[in-house]
Model the fold of this input.
Amino acid sequence: MCVGLPAKILTMKDGMAVVDAHGAKREISAELIDDLEPGDYVMVHAGIAIAKITEEEDD
Done:
């Protein structure tokens, strides 16, 4: 079973992103997903963005 955590991208640089996951800020790899920008929401697993999601899916 894969447990993912929804998070909002705050900043992007060189394939890495700083995300906010319900108040906890973390740096993750965003290299697996194209066209991510600050403000986008992603599903994070093991420090890697594995899918782009909508804001509604964050709830």
